[in-house]
Every structure is written in structure tokens, then in C-alpha cells.
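Protocol step 4 of 6: structure prediction from sequence.
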Amino acid sequence: MRISALVKRIMLQMFRDKRTLALLFLAPLLVLTLMYLIFDSNEEEMKLGVVGGNDLLIETLESQSIRVENFESADNDTVLENDLDAILELKSNGAVLTLENDDPTQAKALLAQISQALAFQSQGAAEQNASAAELETNYIYGNEDTEFFDVIGPILVGFFVFFFVFLISGIGLLKERVSGTLERVLATPVKRWEIVGAYLIGFGIFAIIQTTIVVSFSIWILDMVMEGEVWHVIIINLMLALVALSLGILLSTFAGSEFQMVQFIPLVIVPQIFFSGIFPLDGMADWLQNLGRIMPLYYGADALKAVMYRGEGLTDVWGDLLVLGLFALLFIVLNILALKRYRKL
């Protein structure tokens, strides 16, 4: 009887919390749907630029689902400006392949396909420009030892900064509200924007410390790839932390308990993982790619990858930083407006 009474009590509590029930049943469906759409996307055709190629080679490459574009001359800028995966230059004494290597797994697959195509050409053509044995390989980013983790490492750094700042700030402010501290502050003449600013600065100090620790540990202890400047990485992560901080504080105003705050994770955090660059985005449908562009982590991850892996600077990622700044400003304004639920000043 005692057990049945406790079970009945738990059931009644769950049925009274409509939002928890909705998230319990709908959140898994949302995540599963995103996973289905992402992993069911068609793999994008690889793009290869060719200089001095013959019809037999181009036909062989295209039969392997490689989109070939002919160029009279090419260099590293040709690859980047034309969004190519690689450029292949055929010479009288061999061939030179320059891989972008933005995705090491894809680059290795492309290298294997080109090697096979050159070998086939040397066997089937009477006059060849190159053979597989004479293929010289260069890399714009990384080298032949670059692994997939070297690419997603910068993204993971940004994700963990975003996730933990979001969680700590949201739950921290929620405790202030549940304990009555926020109500007592609201009873004073302090303005709403001053309250929001104070909480942003207070939690922001710890966000700065956490960000510095995470970045330093990743680069100097885990030895993650670091082609750009460390202080550029810290600035990007601080911008990402500011967005997470303001978003966490905003969503905490709509939660009644720590459990309800955690419920926002599958709705706010998990979808951003799929669009951060850990999974290939190019093969997704256009509307799905556009969905990723309304998520802050999409821009933070892009900026971190550009600096840490590709060695770019802040001037190259200013667009990402601008969008992160706009996200932070939007959430801060919404925070000020959300406090009207508790007091009108």
C-alpha cells in the first residue's frame, strides 16, 4: 500500500507538470528526426580541379563521382576561391596533387581515388602524363598525419564552453529566484537592466576563468592543433560564452526548478551539436543548412576551426563574431523584458 501510494504521488506530480510530459515524449522525437535528416543526407560530390588533364583521366575521375573542373593554371588560392577539395596538376614527369584537407577523412578518400585513376590511366593509355608512383601530394591545411579529431577538436572546445556556461548560469540564476534573493533585489529601486548587467558580469567572471582554463588545457595539455593565435581563440570563446551566459539566464526565467532547466538541453543544446560542423553540413538539404544558421554554436565553431585549424585571424572571422555579438545583444534585451514577469519598473 505504501509503495502504491508513492507511485500514485509520483504519477500525479508528472501529470500536473505538462511541460515535463511534453518534453519527455517530444524531445526524443525531435532529436531522432534531426539525426535521421542529417545522416540520411546525400553525400556531396567532391570537387577536383585539373590542370593539363586528358579525356581518359577526366572520364575515369568522373566515373568515381568526382566533379572535375579544368584550369589552365592553378595554385592554393584556386582551391580556396573555387571551393575545391583539391587541385591536380599533370606534368611531363609526374603529377602534383594539392589537397585542401579541411576534412581529413574526405581528403584521404579523394587521394586514394586519384591514385587509382592515375594508375588506370598509366595502364590503359599509350601516352600518359603521369603515373601513380610519381604522384606528389601537398596539403593546404594540416598534413598527411592530420586526423579527424584535429578538425573537430576546436569545435568541441567551443561546445563545452557554451554548454557549461549555459548550464551554470541558468541554474545559478534559477537558485537566486527560487531562494527569494531575486525577489528581494527586485523590491529595491534597482533597474531591470542593472540586474541583468550585474548577473552577466558576475557569472561572466567565472565564464572568463572557465574559458581560459578550457582553452589552455586543450592546447598545451591535450596538444590540440593550434595554427592561429591563442588570444584569438580566447576572444572567440569569450564571445561564445557571453551568448551562452545571456541565453542561460533568459531561459532560467521560464523554469521553475533545476529539473525544468535541464529540460531545455535537448531543445537548445543538442540541436546545435548537429549543426556545429562535427557532422558534414554540405550534403544536407538547403533548408536544413539554413536551420543551422540560426544557432550560435554554428558561428562559434566556424570561427574556432578557422583560427585553430586553418590559421586564420580575427579579421577573417569578423562575420562570425558579429553574429555572435548580435545573438548576445538579442538575448540581453529579452532578459530585460523577461524581468517584467516579476516586477514592472
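Step 5 (inspection) to follow. The first helix runs from residue 2 to 16.
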